[in-house]
Amino acid sequence: MSEENAARPLPVVPYLKLPEDGDPYIEGQKCSECSAIYLGERGGCSKCGARGTLQATKLSNRGKLHVFSIVHRSFPGIEVPYVSAIVDLDGGGTVKGNLINIEPDPEKIQFGMPVEVVYADALGRKDKDGNSYISYFFQPAS
Amino acid sequence: MTDAYVVGIDMIKFGRFPDRTVPEIGSEAALLALADCGLKIQDMEALYCGNLGQANAMVGQRILQEIGQTGIPVVNCANACATGATAFREGWMSIKAGVYDTVLCVGVEQMGKGLLGGAGGGSGIPKEGLLGSGTMPAVFAEAGQEHASKYGTTFEQFAKVSVKNHHHSTLNPKAMYQIETPLETVMNAEMIAYPNTKLMCSVNVDGSAAAVLCSEKKVRELGLMGRAVKVSASVMTSDPWQERDLVMPDVNSCTRQAAAKAFEMAGVGASDVDLVELHDCFATAEILHYENLSLCGEGEAGHMIDSGDSALGGRCPVNVSGGLLSKGHPLGATGIANIYEVSTHLRGEAGKRQVEGAKVGMTHVIGLGSACAIHVLEKVS
Ligand SMILES: [Zn+2]
């Protein structure tokens, strides 16, 4: 049982879905009343206050870079620099993550540039039980 | 409804006091504020105390153990970086409601050094540096980058905020630092989270500030109207829903809503405001708040810093105390310390950094999460 768990990587956050027979994706919770989209399950909609109206929806793997920061100092043990990015996904939903496969140079990163969501091992980080994790990242798209 | 007035107010010089206790640091400001108006702890009918780091440890009562345990009601409050302003506002409300005529408000914090922000937490593995950054310098860098994206605001313009506020603090003996930081120095300082360099991040310091508030009747009775400062608006908001909320705290909407309400409550417009102490937790944030507080038009914040409009001697001086960037940011004390700064100018007692002829001033703080508090203060003529 534990060997099986260790063999199959876990999602870094609950809203990252890793279907056994399909591609990974980010799951949003969409309010059927007002169309607001959330990451992660919740009891009610914080935009309109409706309850029981949130439905799981598969979010797009493409989007546009809203803003970014290049982080040069972080908490101890965290490798720097990295690009912290906020991405508006096509069709709705905003996600924060690392922007990879781009130089960490403000001149090389454009607001609004198209990006795609890619899924990969979580930088080698393991939990205390030795489990590996899959995370999502953004990279420049054409 | 009675008007409420600040009759006594003061702050300690901000610094690092690892060998003192939080109640000791808070008591010092409380005694200074009482001395400022010549009143005693026995004259106070209630104490409103703001502190974040020991929010569950009855700091207000422990301050009374230091300066006089008179048995008055004590309210301890915590509201992130709006903690001090929240304590002040609780005192203001008690006066406005007619429950008390004389109250004491204290804000105090002991910080320690280091980076503030969420390390990700939760179960599994650390998320910092994996799902972007939750550090405060990065969060506020991203907030500032929205302005850069919309209006082309540059790294240099953000850096100029820090040059200005550090310059202001050379005129403020109660600021943590009195050091000039020229533009090259700010821009070449260690990059923490682009575009915020180390000199564009507020300084974690220990400190305290306190105010004595009175009803109009009481001010007259005590003969204290001469140096009294009228609180003509006190407003708080929380952050209204925004579509990027979950990944990007919004410091703009709550500030805009609070500013609109504050101008209405005080019956003044932005052009009437002679000086502003606003929440420059990072240099990027100050740029956003010029527009959020209507100190300039939309998209004009870059011009406002370039032109010197927000510097001492300019059209609307901002953070003449040195701001959080150089005076320092003891979270629970900040909201009362900025009321001290504005009050000191309205009283004409700000010395070398005096904003000449100041009649109306505004203070603003944001506690991320979010709580925004704005006060409008007026000279009594
Ligand atoms: Zn809804």
* Number of distinct beta strands of chain B: 11
Mean pLDDT of chain A: 94
- CATH architecture field of chain B: 3-Layer(aba) Sandwich
**In terms of quaternary structure, what is this?**
heterodimer
Helix and strand content put the structural class of chain A at mainly beta
Number of domains of chain B: 1
User: What characterizes the major β-sheet of chain A?
Assistant: 6 strands, mixed
Rg of chain B is: 20 Å
Largest interface, with counts of residues having CB < 8 Å to the other chain, equals: A-B, 44 and 37 residues
Instruction: Give the ordered list of helices and strands of chain B.
Output: EHEHEHEHHHEEEHEHEHHHHEE
Beta-strand content bin of chain B = 15-25%
**Which fold name corresponds to the CATH topology of chain B?**
Peroxisomal Thiolase, Chain A, domain 1
**Largest sheet of chain B, described in full?**
9 strands, mixed
Q: Looking at the structure, what is the overall shape of chain B?
A: globular
Helix content of chain B: 25-40%
End-to-end Cα distance of chain A, whole Å, is 43 Å
Q: Tell me the number of helical segments of chain A per DSSP (H or I, 4 or more residues long).
A: 1
CATH superfamily of chain B: Thiolase/Chalcone synthase
The proportion of strand residues of chain A reads: over 45%
Structural classification of chain B: alpha/beta
